[in-house]
């Protein structure tokens, strides 16, 4: 349960840190855009059960696969989609860290 709370809090705070230091003049907008990328978790609705605290999202859900991560990397390289791409990459990184923590590797 604690792991889930920490994971959720990081999904809001990590984009905030990146927004504050990476987009200082427009950090609020950047933070909102990056937090909005959590909509990527809608792919969890395709799973049975929808929520499993012991399931690693990376590689399981369609929008959490390595080809998707490559697309998010490309989005982060394009100035007009950079904030979206970074938000998605942060999300995937946090999910990957959660997978490591869940498996006792972190």
TrEMBL record:
<keyword id="KW-1133">Transmembrane helix</keyword>
<protein>
    <recommendedName>
        <fullName>Transmembrane protein</fullName>
    </recommendedName>
</protein>
<feature type="transmembrane region" description="Helical">
    <location>
        <begin position="30"/>
        <end position="51"/>
    </location>
</feature>
<feature type="transmembrane region" description="Helical">
    <location>
        <begin position="63"/>
        <end position="79"/>
    </location>
</feature>
<keyword id="KW-0812">Transmembrane</keyword>
<feature type="transmembrane region" description="Helical">
    <location>
        <begin position="6"/>
        <end position="23"/>
    </location>
</feature>
<dbReference type="Pfam" id="PF19617">
    <property type="entry name" value="DUF6122"/>
</dbReference>
<dbReference type="InterPro" id="IPR046125">
    <property type="entry name" value="DUF6122"/>
</dbReference>
<keyword id="KW-0472">Membrane</keyword>
């Amino acid at each position: 349960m604690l792991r889930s709370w920490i994971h959720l809090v990081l999904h809001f705070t990590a984009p905030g840190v990146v927004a504050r230091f990476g987009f200082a003049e427009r950090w609020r907008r950047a933070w909102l855009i990056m937090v909005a990328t959590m909509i990527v978790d809608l792919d969890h609705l395709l799973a049975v059960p929808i929520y499993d605290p012991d399931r690693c999202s990376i590689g399981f859900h369609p929008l959490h696969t390595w080809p998707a991560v490559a697309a998010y990397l490309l989005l982060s390289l394009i100035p007009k989609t950079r904030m979206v791409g970074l938000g998605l990459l942060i999300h995937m990184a946090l999910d990957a860290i959660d997978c490591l923590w869940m498996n006792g590797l972190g």
